[in-house]
Design a protein that fits this description.
Number of domains: 2
CATH class of the largest domain: Alpha Beta
Number of strands: 9
Strand content: 15-25%
CATH superfamily of the largest domain: Spore Coat Polysaccharide Biosynthesis Protein SpsA, Chain A
Shape: globular
Helix content: 40-55%
Distance between the termini: 44 Å
Order of helices and strands: EHEHEHEEHEEHEHHEHHHHH
CATH architecture of the largest domain: Alpha-Beta Complex
Radius of gyration: 20 Å
Number of helices: 12
Length: about 300
């Protein structure tokens, strides 16, 4: 049986040490049937010599002019022929059993699309080093399992054949590139969540504790556009929900809101569900979820 995994690793102006760490985490996988497609999407320093130094014939290196992440990933996807596809970013890492857990679960359960858990690790740059500030599980319960919110492509593995229906990455997108693809894959087959931490995703903080990634900058610089883009994605995600899944998400949102109220008021127990206004005072994305879920319920 062909169980080969095509691993896609796009990179652009990477930190060399982190890039080496990412590739090394792939080479150390206990599951050995893989081909790694590294796509250098332009940048100031060529990685060719660094890749050659790994001395692993399973690595295929592409050096391109800058075309953007989605286009770079598509180029790699079209080169491979493995049954499964997995992804890793150039500054993240997999634990040694990441592919073993994902592929083994898919084969044992007859599923075509899985996502594991990942640590979301917040770090701050201090001179040439990174200091860990905190870490938490990236998964957000039903919001991740059913809406694929807070699911990174680095902890997803899927059958290549799904691309025949879902299509390739949308090269016109500048944000939510991965979430867009995950939702299209989920239209073809329901993903299975594997509650095992198999990788680490890094978030970089500035000196004033602000996230330095593209999405966070968009929230700060243009909150209205951020709201529009979030609602676009949530609307698409809600189309995947069954009534039972909708109810489960609502209960989780109520529970989380109760917890926030308890913290704010110092009370240990609140016997009645919180009013809608409690959600409306929450973070931007939470406001969007609550309003759009309410609209979803009215249509049913």
């Amino acid at each position: 049986m062909n169980n080969r995994v095509d691993i896609i690793l796009p990179t652009y102006n990477t930190n060399i040490l982190l890039f080496k760490r990412a590739v090394d985490s792939i080479i150390r996988q206990t599951f050995r049937e893989w081909t790694l497609y590294i796509v250098q999407d332009g940048g100031e320093i060529s990685l060719s010599d660094i890749v050659q130094n790994f001395k692993d014939g399973r690595i295929v290196f592409n050096n391109l002019y800058h075309v953007g992440k989605a286009a770079a990933v598509n180029i790699a996807l079209k080169q491979g022929s493995g049954k499964y596809i997995a992804y890793l970013d150039d500054d993240d890492l997999w634990y040694p059993r990441h592919l073993e857990v994902a592929v083994g679960t898919m084969n044992e359960n007859g599923v075509r699309f899985v996502h594991t858990d990942a640590y979301e690790i917040f770090v701050r740059k201090e001179n040439s080093n990174l200091r860990e500030i905190s870490r938490n599980i990236l998964n957000r319960g039903s919001l991740s399992d059913y809406l694929l919110w807070y699911v990174s492509h680095i902890n997803t593995v899927h059958e290549r054949a799904l691309l025949d229906h879902a299509g390739y990455y949308d090269e016109s997108r500048k944000i939510f590139i991965d979430w867009d693809m995950l939702l299209r894959l989920a239209r073809v087959t329901k993903p299975l969540h594997i509650p095992i931490v198999t990788c680490e995703h890094y978030i970089y903080l500035s000196d004033d504790n602000k996230k330095e990634n593209t999405i966070s900058q968009m929230h700060t610089n243009d909150p209205q556009d951020s709201k529009r883009l979030h609602e676009e994605m949530f609307k698409r995600a809600f189309e995947l929900l069954s009534p039972d899944e909708f109810v489960q998400i609502m209960w989780e949102l109520l529970k989380k809101t109760n917890q926030l109220i308890n913290i704010q008021t110092g009370q240990k127990n609140i016997p009645t569900p919180p009013p809608a206004a409690s959600f409306e005072k929450g973070p931007l994305a939470t406001q969007s979820i609550f309003r759009l879920l309410t609209e979803w319920l009215k249509k049913k």
